[in-house]
Amino acid sequence: MDLREQDILGEAIGAHWYYRSKSRAMFRLLEGVAPRSVLDIGAGSGFFAREWLLRGGAERATCVDPHYPADRDESVAGRPLLFRRAVAATDADLLLLMDVLEHVEDDVALLRDHARIAPRGATVLLTAPAFGWLWSGHDVFLGHRRRYSVARLEATARAAGIVVDRACYFFAAVFPLAVAQRLPAILRRGAGGPDPAPQCDMRRHGALADRVLGAFCAAELPVFPANRLFGLSVFLRGRVG
């Protein structure tokens, strides 16, 4: 999770339809995976690592992010949650990079460097924003460098030494809403216009909106692992080779 979005959502993160839906998709794509230790790279607030400690049965988790002001230790449900600015080695059997690769200049190098310190065969889950033509002020606000197709994320993972098991799109249910919202910016860029001004699309919603949007996304969960057509996010499951 991006720390900029944490500042906006605060303690409402767990109730927000977007993060609740992304967590459900994470567990859906990783069905059958029962990690003892999780390494959450570029973790921000540590939302997804906490989910594994609370709901996924993990015994411990480490969040890595160079933007932390200092290393610190916490506990979630009696299990250790460590926050580190860097790690040199890990025994984690699950590596998470949730919306991380789009922030760095060399995405292959970042993924390869962390795969090299992980055990062979460790499960890897990547997510990234989908489709370059959906570029918007939100990408500028978050400091993104690119958006991905399924094929591009697969190629990035393989170049970093990851064995790809499955890649797919999520948030197909709300895809038309996002396209409609971003259509003016899409048309301006298509006509050679400038990059849109930074603007955060993440905001708190009322309980009803959260329930409705969350229900839309929950409805696609049974078929989302097979969706290679469209969505707002790309998900990839793989293994350290």
Kindly describe this structure:
- This protein is α/β, with parallel strands linked by helices and 241 residues long.
- The protein has one domain: Vaccinia Virus protein VP39 (Rossmann fold), CATH 3.40.50.150.
- The protein is built from eight helices and eight strands, in the order ααβαββββαβααβααβ.
- The protein has an eight-stranded mixed β-sheet, with helices on both faces.
- α4 links the parallel β5 and β6.
- The model has no long low-confidence stretch (mean pLDDT 91).
Layout: helices, strands, pairs:
Elements (H helix, E strand, L loop, with lengths): L2 H7 L7 H13 L7 E5 L5 H8 L5 E5 L7 E5 L2 E6 L9 E5 L8 H10 L6 E7 L7 H6 L7 H10 L2 E9 L4 H16 L16 H13 L13 E8 L1
Parallel strand pairs: 1-2, 1-5, 2-4, 5-6
Antiparallel strand pairs: 3-4, 6-8, 7-8
Helix pairs in contact: 2-8
Please give the largest β-sheet: 8 strands, mixed
Q: What percent of the residues sit in helical stretches (DSSP H or I)?
A: 25-40%
CATH superfamily: Vaccinia Virus protein VP39
Number of helices: 8
CATH architecture: 3-Layer(aba) Sandwich
CATH class: Alpha Beta
Strand order of the largest sheet: 3-4-2-1-5-6-8-7
Mean pLDDT, all residues:
91
Topology-level CATH name: Rossmann fold
* Through-space gap between termini: 26 Å
Order of helices and strands: HHEHEEEEHEHHEHHE
**What is the count of structural domains?**
1
Please tell me how large the radius of gyration is: 17 Å
Provide the low-confidence segments as ranges.
Answer: none
* Structural class by SSE content: alpha/beta
The percent range for strand residues is 15-25%
- Count all strands and give the number: 8
- Per the principal axes of the C-alpha atoms, what is the gross shape? globular
